[in-house]
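Hi support team,

I'm filing this because I wasn't sure whether my run with pyridoxal-5'-phosphate finished correctly. The job status page said complete, but I'd like someone to confirm that the output block is well-formed before I use it downstream. Pasting the exact inputs I used:
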Amino acid sequence: MQYLSTRGVAPPVGAGAAMLAGLAPDGGLYVPEQFPLLPPDRFPPGAHLADTAPRLLAPFVAGDALATELDAVCAEALDFPVPLTEAGGFRVLELFHGPTAAFKDVGARFLAACLARLAGDRPRTVLVATSGDTGGAVAAAFSGRPGFRVVLLYPRGRVSDRQEAQLTCWGENVLSLRVDGDFDDCQRMVKEAFGDTALRARAGLTSANSISIGRLLPQAAYYAWAGLTVWRETGTAPGFIIPSGNLGNSLACLWARRCGLPIGPVVLATNANETVGDFFAGGEWAPRATVQTLATAMDVGNPSNMERLLHMAGSPEAARGEASAVRVSDAEIRAAIRTGPGRYGRTWCPHTATAVRAWELLPAEAAQRPWVVVATAHPAKFEDVVEPLVGAEVPMPPALAELMARPRHFVEIGPEFAAFRELLSDLPGIP
Ligand SMILES: *Cc1c(COP(=O)(O)O)cnc(C)c1O
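And here is everything the job wrote out:
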């Protein structure tokens, strides 16, 4: 399988090269040149996620050095439970049982397992700007891996206390930089570093941000697995409702459906950031400034994976046919969290709450089929929002509690590139 740039200028590359590059050299995003057709009978009934993933992903790494490593990569990256449970009217795909209690563990662990097999002897510095869940997942995935160092930048005072603990508890090969600025400053500094050819070579810079194909592909696997499971049980392809920000998680679902997996309608649940909702309501694609909401990991005004969706669909009109979008306000998020325990016996995180609300808003006719609500984070990660609404403490999963107890390490820096560049240039060799 070759990967093309959405901008059509950069030459096609194999899966491994696309993962190592992150962004294509023409500024586009890598997409598979075609989608393999994988009918359900290719997947044995009752298979677990870790067995389903290699069958789905084999065509996507065919012809690449990763092909012979795929089974091992999937076994290593998908070694935590991904339950599909029942909650009063719909199913819940619980993607938050990994080391940092959010679905980003899936992509980050798969990418790390791939890069560890691709990087050769050359030491690599994985550089990430993060506004929350990504940085922790990437740090966890690369922590203690020989030949890798992680440098992550996060905005001071803009992440929750528990998120900050996850960004700073690693030590060893993880350097956490607390930037006196906002997320856009962090992102700009990372972009400048990648644009600095000398620095890029010297520090062996590698990207792990959400546009990496190595993070998207494994996400398609849980949709394939959940779609097959519900379809075998009920005879109907389930619909999926996905809390969406940068659209990476939703795009993976649409890719799985393109491959012929039993996946019905896809609903993107968004927060008060209107870009996606406006587009699916028939408007132009018009990125906006980001608005802060309770579902912070979905606060994205210019979702970068739209470029991939438009490329796959071929036109804005066709893209609107792939999915629909439902906007959920902060007031509705609060209400969904508050009523979660009584109505469904569940405590939702603010992101999952947007999808639950979107399910409640489904027209009666659509609600006839089975639906899967995608639960993207554990509510204990957002206890400051959730606990006052449900009036109870939300117990932390043991893995999360263990991270919270660790000492925190970070270095404070300003939002200027020059000082950041100096710091990156002077980092000691990677063991
Ligand atoms: C990142 C994130 C999202 C949004 O996912 P995208 O792939 O950016 O659309 C939703 N929920 C949580 C908890 C997240 O961390």
